[in-house]
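[09:14] KT: can someone run the structure on this one? pasting the chain below
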Amino acid sequence: MTDRTIFRLSGADTHDFLQGLVTNDVAKLEQGLVYAAMLTPQGKYRADFFLVPDGDDVLLDVATPLAPGLKQALMMYKLRSSVDIEETDRRVTRGLGDAPDGAFADPRDPSLGWRGYDGQAGDDDVDWTALRVAAAIPESDVELTADSFILEMDFERLNGVDFRKGCYVGQEVTARMKHKTELRKGLAQVTVSAPVPVGTEILAGEKPAGTLYSQSGGKGLAYLRFDRASGAMTADDATVARVEPS
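[09:31] RB: done, structure tokens below
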């Protein structure tokens, strides 16, 4: 994959530094990949990424468009911590089936297979967008934007947040959404009668009901207002309907 950037974080404070910033528990690196996000102090999405165990170091696998801003934020929080952050020339490969030696299962959903960081031969012909849509997996810089709250984007289902790990940037807002509110908006799978541009507004009658994003095979991912998404909707000339969660 050429649309991902891999940073290496090294130094004596690396794990503690990450633990105070990201939404998931860094201790889970002992088990494999950790999917996590970094939030703003207001609890909104800044970037999502995979943390990868690499000896005493940690690799950070992030979408390339988000990499400069994420590195800048990490450097801002680093202060006097003994942590070095450097971009590497490693590339991500992906495949389905059993993970080859040195690769890791994608922690978001079994249908997404594995990710490799040491030159493992990947599956180049897989329609990854179709798999994401079928499994309702949001993508960096597509469904996941600066306006996103991670619980609205199903991070709990995707193993991207841990509510027992303690404080991190944006934790208070995230915990309050978990324990004190009912989500009224969020990511949903929909059927769509014809392809439309990513970012097309969804209407319920004449009322805005959400936004349509990735699409494949007559299905799509949308950010919806749940109170307006119970019947037939439209996006441009397409008919849209929410797929009720099982």
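[09:33] KT: thanks! The longest helix spans residues 67-78.
[09:34] RB: yep, looked fine to me
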